[in-house]
Amino acid sequence: MGEAVELTVGGRQVRLSSPDKIYFPERGLTKLDVARYYLSVGDGIARALHERPTTLERYPEGVGGESFFQKRAPKNLPEWIPTARISFPSGRYADEICPTEPAAVLWAANLGCLTFHPWPVRRADTDHPDELRIDLDPQPGTDYADAVRAAQQLRPLLEELGLRGWPKTSGGRGLHVFVPIVPEWNFAQVRRAAIAVGRELERRDPSRVTTAWWKEERGDRIFVDYNQTARDRTIASAYSVRPNQRATVSAPLRWEELDRAHPDDFDVVTMPLRYAEVGDVHAEMDAHPCRLEAVLELADRDEREHGLGDLPYPPEHPKVKGEPKRVQPSRAKRTGA
Fold it and tell me: What does pTM read for this prediction?
């Protein structure tokens, strides 16, 4: 596996053990390759994770081995990496790491962390999101090009609502659009805003977009996964490495790049070249927080004029007042539920 190496980042020395361990067998990429990748985009991923409680998706033996999500901060956490206590819908809590500098990313990469899953909150206030995250998820029969078409319709809708979105690839087939917001609304309100945006997008293109929670109702459409805004649901951060054999990464994009970009264009090898050329294209995102009054008024109007209330939460989430029954439609018909 090779002798451990010391990497210097931001004035700190970070030890990387077993640097020659193969993490991506099909491409021969090693643990050191992943660490060097994170060094190359250090300021970008540090911006995306800054002071956010973050779950680590770890692959200690590479993408062919076992993996796990680590929510609680490891016991050997350096004193210079802060934490924040977050509470789950179950009532339990955990102290999660909150990276504030690139060295923290390198430290986690040494543990086999490939993908970073930050909460949409900062550690100073873990109950009020400062990002509205819209996940455009291709369903069977659709692909990235379909997600792009949905995103191109989403952009003017957001602008009509006084919102500015920042798109990025998921690293797979989908697209994420993050909207920075003023942290004045709780998780339930932000989720309600995501539902309203999804429903309006669906109205504008019902044959290609859906908010249907049950897979049997989605068809070959792009699913707006509103539950990615529920408490304890997270989305891979910008610049995170994804656990596939291509070693793709979640790539921040400019809107005008959507048509010509493809998720496979951005990986551990190619992203450092792009980053050296254009830098972090989302660097200014946090400087443009938006407000949710207009989209929450849209949600009120949906309920008042169309009888459209809440939608189902994820199965592990406690039942919420006003939530519809969590019964698969085909099963409901059979049982009369």
Answer: 0.96
Strand partners, 133: 178
Average pLDDT, the chain: 95
pLDDT at 334: 60
pLDDT > 60? residue 337: no
